[in-house]
Specification:
heterodimer, A: 420 residues, alpha+beta, Cytochrome Bc1 Complex, Chain A, domain 1, 2 domains, 5-stranded mixed β-sheet, B: 418 residues, 6-stranded mixed β-sheet, 43% helix, globular
């Protein structure tokens, strides 16, 4: 069994304007990683504007402060910054990893991107085309399409909408939509700035206050949660393989039982000794890729399962998955739980070797919990998982009322006991 | 950080880059065998064998191997390419011996026929999975066209037909020949207890019979015959293009300059392709990469875009190569790319699991070791002249093997091949 001892130094500070600063010192590293998460994710897109947050995030990089879009990239990359930009359901994120000494030069660039994006009309068509190209690329990725369709039918709108957008909506968006969106949602309150690695926290806070301390903005409108879609969907697709995606509801991450959620689903399909991997792939050779896991939004979460297999064997694959899912409650074994604990605890420690992974982890925890859990707390919580606590979670959250997506040539039969 | 090496009497080598304060230990078995070592009858055997190694030994079932890795909290997996088959595990330092023992035992798999039959189905699923994904086989077909009769022409996965026809006896024989101690390196990085690593290797592998290592087939270099081919996928949304031309091999000191050149011209961001094609939203992806092998190297150009634009964009990419060769590159873009590459070297060097592949593959191929500082020094010593020399020598704007895949039909082939 895995025994773990790691020293940890965490920092947090909420500025007067609502910006949350989080830090973790990892002194054995030469790098720092920083991520700015503005509360400007796809959940704020609005009806018939799916992809607005993604288009806005792209536009923010196309000129800010005194820099052109090209100037931003050249200045970041010229300093050796490995940068990235992404938009999720909840956040627009701008991140970078670099040798620690470059941080003070990089921070003003990120301040410009967040506070002074130019949002020039002449850039909107190129930005739109870039978003549309990315959407076209995802159309050619059958596994991605299956999981995206699953999230759309399982989560109520807007929580399951694809943050990368919908082609018809993106084609309609105008520069004014982007400007209004950025003005409304890219704002200090609830923006999380997380840093990890070889950090000087005091100097970092001083510079952030200089760059962001006077940033003010009004309140943004909240999100109205809509209704769920149909529970079953077949997506016709001319492919050799049929892709199967299943979901059932689970409590969100802020619920104390999220560790039970993670563990139960890891036992089902989270590693090479998991039940789905053993029964679907190893025992029967039905597929190359099969898995289950826990995915959480702020207020909604789900157990997600996936398999991709030859069309002729897709029904058998779904049937075996169904048997294993239904068999889970009441059959958890201590040895299975021990393995899941070992993997989770080891994973937490290995995460300490990556500044980017830690910056992401502490930001995620603050968003969901309003605090950062220490490594010791997390390890202790894993230690306290028991067969009884997992079984209690399964009794509370039985694999029922499943959402099912198939993507391939032919639809599959969804048995009643899955849909009941 | 220190580098240590030991060799057993039977020829098996053990190397480690030891970082005392690392939080993890990564261990890998690097077998000098891959797709290039196969014959037509064995096409796909290296990769299939990699799967079979996880199906158990004479006294360990496949399930037991999976359970043991999970029980020790290991991040464990394997990969096969044209020249290597690598099995690896990253664990907390306390699990070093257990992980090493398991990996070592796995190198002598049972290769049971019933497992072989089941796993063959998994391999066939993997082939179909990749065939359904971009670039829809264009990469494998392009490599086959580029390398012609050279052993590197062979795709790693094999084909549905070659896998279906492969008998278990052939795999057993291939394993006997290729997994001999002289053809295998045990490497470790991070918080490594080197004496314990050597002791594990002696206990597990010391009695393996040495065998004469079969030299690799290294044919003389051949002239590239320019070619263009098309894979029609009517339901694909985008068109995907893959082009290959020659580049420095891993014995060529210019290989580092080649990698930096690829960053300047075709990195995912901030490169000439990025500003010309991706930033404008004309291409979903446009990149240039350099890849090196023992006796060959290649530059791979990849493009995905609307089918109607593919000919025009390929021409523009060629023009970018041509102008970089004739007019040169600027000091500014050179410095930007060099700093970017240096940053990647530092970040990658922080993770023992990433260092494992660098250290293990380098030693396995050339019996040399380079620290992160050595790599950084190489990058920092590169000059703009080095890049100009490489692009002029390797003629990126010259003849290529090109394969397109997507909705376009053969009625409208691209006009310019070279």
């Amino acid at each position: 069994m895995v025994a773990v001892f790691v020293k940890q130094t965490l920092f947090s500070l909420v500025l007067d304007n609502g910006i949350v600063l989080l830090g973790e010192s990892l002194p054995s590293l030469e790098s720092v990683a920083i991520a700015f998460h503005a509360p400007a994710g796809g959940m704020h897109d609005g009806p018939n504007r799916c992809g607005l947050a993604t288009l806005a995030g792209e536009m923010m990089l196309r000129g800010a402060g005194g820099r052109s879009g090209r100037g931003i990239v050249e200045d970041l990359e010229g300093s050796g910054v490995q940068w990235a930009q992404s938009v999720s359901t909840s956040h627009a994120s701008f991140s970078g990893a670099m040798v620690a000494r470059q941080l003070s030069d990089a921070l003003p660039i990120y301040a410009d991107i967040l506070r002074r994006p130019l949002l020039e009309e002449e850039q909107i068509e190129n930005a739109r085309q870039m978003v549309l190209q990315n959407l076209a690329g995802t159309e050619d990725d059958p596994a991605h399409r299956a999981m995206s369709a699953l999230r759309q039918i399982h989560f109520p709108a807007p929580w399951g909408m694809p943050s990368e957008g919908l082609t018809a909506d993106v084609e309609r968006l105008a520069i004014d939509d982007v400007r209004l969106f950025v003005a409304s949602h890219v704002r200090p309150h609830n923006t999380i700035i997380a840093i990890a690695g070889r950090i000087d926290w005091t100097a970092f806070v001083t510079q952030i206050k200089q760059l962001f301390g006077d940033w003010q903005a009004g309140d943004a409108a909240g999100v109205v949660t809509g209704s769920r879609g149909a529970r079953f969907r077949h997506v016709p697709h001319e492919s050799q393989q049929t892709h199967i995606a299943l979901a059932w509801s689970a409590p969100p991450y802020r619920d104390d039982t999220s560790y039970e959620s993670t563990a139960a689903l890891a036992i089902l399909g989270g590693g090479s000794s998991s039940r789905l991997f053993s029964e679907v792939r190893e025992r029967r050779g039905l597929c190359y890729s099969v898995s289950a896991g826990y995915q959480t939004q702020r207020d909604f979460a789900a157990a997600l399962c996936y398999a991709g297999t030859t069309a002729a064997r897709a029904q058998e694959t779904l049937d075996v998955m169904r048997v294993e899912i239904n068999r889970l409650p009441g059959t958890i074994e201590a040895a299975e739980l021990d393995r899941v604990k070992a993997r989770a605890k080891s994973g937490l420690v290995l995460q300490q070797e990556s500044s980017a992974a830690r910056a992401g982890a502490i930001a995620r925890q603050w968003y969901h919990l309003g605090k950062v859990r220490t490594l010791a707390e997390e390890l202790d919580r894993y230690d306290r998982l028991s067969v009884a606590s997992i079984e209690a979670w399964l009794a509370e959250n039985p694999p029922a009322d499943l959402s099912v997506v198939s993507l391939g040539r032919e639809p599959l039969e969804v048995p009643l006991e899955v849909s009941a | 950080m220190k580098f240590l090496r030991e060799q057993l009497d039977n020829g098996l080598e053990i190397v480690a880059e030891v970082t005392d304060d690392a939080l993890s230990t990564s261990i890998g078995c690097f077998v000098k065998t891959g797709a290039r070592d196969e014959s037509d009858d064995l096409w796909g055997a290296s990769h299939f064998l990699e799967h079979m190694v996880f199906k158990g030994t004479q006294d360990l079932s496949g399930d037991e191997i999976n359970r043991r890795f999970d029980w020790m909290g290991a991040s464990a997996n394997a990969f096969t390419n044209e020249e290597d088959t690598v099995y690896y595990a990253t664990v907390l330092p306390a699990q070093q011996q257990e992980a090493t023992d398991l990996l070592g035992r796995m190198m002598r798999p049972a290769l049971r026929e019933e497992d072989f039959i089941t796993e063959k189905l998994v391999i066939l699923e993997e082939i179909r999975m990749y065939d359904d994904q971009p670039p829809f086989g264009a990469d494998d077909q392009c490599r086959a066209a580029f390398f012609g009769t050279h052993p590197l022409a062979r795709s790693v996965l094999g084909t549905v037909a070659s896998i279906q026809a492969l008998p278990v006896e052939s795999m057993r024989d291939y394993h006997r020949r290729r997994y001999c101690p002289g053809n295998l390196v045990l490497a470790a990085t991070g918080a490594v207890d080197f004496p314990a690593l050597v002791a594990s290797a002696k206990r597990l592998c010391g009695d393996w019979e040495p065998q004469p290592t079969v030299p690799r087939c290294v044919p003389p270099p051949q002239m590239l015959q320019p070619s263009i081919a098309r894979i029609v996928r009517p339901t694909a949304t985008l068109e995907y293009a893959v082009s290959m031309s020659g580049g420095p091999s891993e014995n060529d000191p210019d290989r580092f300059a080649a990698k930096l050149l690829a960053v300047v011209l075709g990195d995912d961001s901030g490169s000439r392709f990025y500003w010309a094609l991706v930033d404008s939203g004309e291409a979903e992806h446009a990149s240039c990469q350099h890849q090196d092998f023992l006796d060959a190297g290649l530059f791979t150009t990849q493009l995905s875009c609307d089918a109607a634009d593919v000919t025009d964009l390929l021409d523009r990419m060629r023009e970018i190569y041509r102008s970089a060769s004739t007019d040169g590159m600027t000091a500014k873009e050179f410095t930007q790319a060099r700093n970017k590459l240096a940053g990647r070297v530092v970040l990658a060097g922080e993770r023992p699991r990433r260092r494992l592949f660098d250290v293990g593959l380098e030693w396995s191929h050339s019996s040399t070791y380079r620290s992160v500082a050595d790599n950084l020094q190489i990058v920092e010593k590169l000059t703009l002249d080095d890049l100009h020399r490489v692009i002029k020598k390797w003629r990126l704007d010259g003849p290529t093997s090109t394969v397109l895949a997507g909705p376009s039909t053969a009625d409208s082939p691209p006009q310019s091949v070279d």
